[in-house]
From TrEMBL:
Family: Belongs to the class-I aminoacyl-tRNA synthetase family.
Organism: Timema poppense (Walking stick)
GO molecular function, one term: ATP binding
Protein name: tyrosine--tRNA ligase
Catalysis: reaction(s): tRNA(Tyr) + L-tyrosine + ATP = L-tyrosyl-tRNA(Tyr) + AMP + diphosphate + H(+)
Keyword Ligase: yes
Source organism, top-level taxon: Eukaryota
EC code: 6.1.1.1
A GO BP entry: tyrosyl-tRNA aminoacylation
Record has Chloroplast as a keyword: no
Enzyme class: ligase
Keywords on record: Aminoacyl-tRNA synthetase, ATP-binding, Ligase, Nucleotide-binding, Protein biosynthesis
């Protein structure tokens, strides 16, 4: 085992290059380590970098620790860090180690799971599972209908949070749901029957999605707030079928660029993950963005739920070019950006330039993955421009015949 002096040296070297435990961002880990080392200040009195860090953390109120956002370092990782840096006083009688309590572990996981969610149904049941010490089993389903757009970054960021919190996540590609949802009855002479089918199919789909929770053996289902009707349906009817009521986690939705929900079926309301830079620029430039309006502003929602969670670096914040590029300002909080936009200090054109810049950073590796010929063929065959779910050039009947021929033995 390494000597106490070796541990101290490693810790001192860490704070030579880093301001905080996690680098350049204050976290709960700083308060935990500060509490550990506070019982033996003589042990690091000759370590200038530890001493500087220690005095700096002492200037922050202890209550701040509970208000700090989760930054992705699990309690188990902090435990390993602090154990690695655990020290002994010169007489060797006191070993400074930190062991998280069971309550600290599950509370941390609960905070990470709830972070950036709009609503949780069944929070008590969720906490009971976390208190047991096992990871939450979550499923997220998506219908394979329209092409994927930037709104999908929101659930992806949350799924990353769930994984960091030790959850087991199942992703369901609901192709049956997609087929039923996209199917439009073509019999024009039977309009009443078509309406009847629509009502029946939508009712069946509610039941199918509710039953997914049981047959996937999950504790929770994750979705957008637009799924609330389905979630409350499941809460009401699953127990009547003898099944356990599940937990439901709901994230916000990214508004469309022209207002309303971002939809795969409305070309100008969404940004496709494979849109080239010039198309991203055109769509962002056309986006509705009224000066000083922060309540009906889809671009600010993209900043809050997509760009900040996925692009904000640990060392600093996000840059906005102001005054025609003559100066820049760094934002570490979306609330600060909202405040400046509401005051008119950030203009719509400047916000649009920022959103365009950071979205293209996110899209570069995705575009690169689809440059090969086989991937381009896949996209073109999956989403042919002449077929739009039975409402385009090809009829529903001809599409169905081709599907039947291609799947026959």
């Amino acid at each position: 085992m390494a000597s106490p002096h070796a541990h101290l040296q490693k810790l001192d070297e860490h704070f030579l290059d880093n301001s905080f435990v996690e680098g350049e961002r204050l976290s709960r880990g700083d308060f935990i380590l500060h509490q550990v080392l506070a019982s033996a200040p003589a042990a690091f009195r000759e370590r200038p970098n530890i001493l500087r860090w220690f005095r700096h953390i002492a200037t922050h109120p202890r209550e701040l620790a509970d208000a700090l956002p989760d930054t992705g370092v699990a309690f188990e990782e902090l435990k390993l860090q602090v154990e690695l840096w655990s020290q002994q006083q010169s007489d060797g009688n006191v070993k400074l180690t930190w062991e998280p309590s069971r309550d600290q572990v599950w509370e941390h996981k609960s905070r990470m799971i709830r972070h950036n969610l709009k609503e949780v149904l069944g929070e008590d049941r969720m906490e009971d599972i976390l208190k047991e010490g096992r990871g939450l089993r979550i499923y997220w389903g998506t219908a394979t209908t329209g092409r994927i757009h930037i709104g999908y970054f929101v659930p992806m960021a949350k799924i990353a949070d769930y994984l960091k919190a030790g959850c087991e996540v199942t992703i369901l590609f609901a192709d049956l749901h997609a087929y039923l949802d996209n199917m439009k009855a073509p019999w024009e002479l039977l309009k009443l029957r078509a309406r009847y089918y629509e009502v029946i199919i939508k009712t069946i789909m509610l039941s199918l999605q509710a039953l997914d929770e049981e047959h996937l053996h999950v504790d929770a289902q994750f979705g957008g707030v637009d799924q609330r009707k389905i979630f409350t349906f499941a809460e009401k009817y699953l127990p009547q079928l003898g099944y356990t009521k599940r937990i439901h986690l709901m994230s916000p939705l990214v508004p469309g660029l022209s207002g309303g929900k971002m939809s795969a079926s409305e070309e100008d309301s969404k940004i496709d993950l494979l849109d080239p830079p010039h198309v991203v620029k055109r769509k962002i430039k056309k986006a509705f963005c009224e000066p000083k309006n922060i309540t009906d502003n889809g671009l600010l929602s993209i900043v809050e739920y997509v760009i900040f969670p996925l692009c904000c670096p640990p060392k600093g914040g996000l840059l906005v070019n102001l005054d025609s590029g003559k100066k820049t300002k760094t934002y570490t909080s979306v609330r600060d950006l909202e405040s400046d936009f509401a005051a008119g200090d950030v203009h719509p054109g400047e916000l649009k330039d920022m959103v365009e810049h950071y979205l293209n950073i996110l899209l570069v590796p995705i575009r690169a993955a689809f440059t090969s010929a086989d991937k381009r063929v896949l996209v073109n065959r999956a989403y042919p421009k002449t077929y739009k779910g039975g409402r385009g050039v090809r009829s529903f009947d001809s599409a169905l015949k081709q599907m039947s021929a291609s799947t026959s033995l």
